[in-house]
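Many introductory courses stop at the sequence. We go one step further.
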Amino acid sequence: MRVAVLGFGNQELYEKIGVEERCGGEPPFGGAGMALDFARAGHEVVLSDPFLDE
């Protein structure tokens, strides 16, 4: 399956608000984490962020 993930997420913000402790799981969280999980499961993944140049 082809998967497109829009937005990398903000790992520093997730660490600051304690996502790992509150929700479980392992970093990275957000779009980057989703893209990695899909890729590890064998899917073709495209990861992009509209604000990459900022």
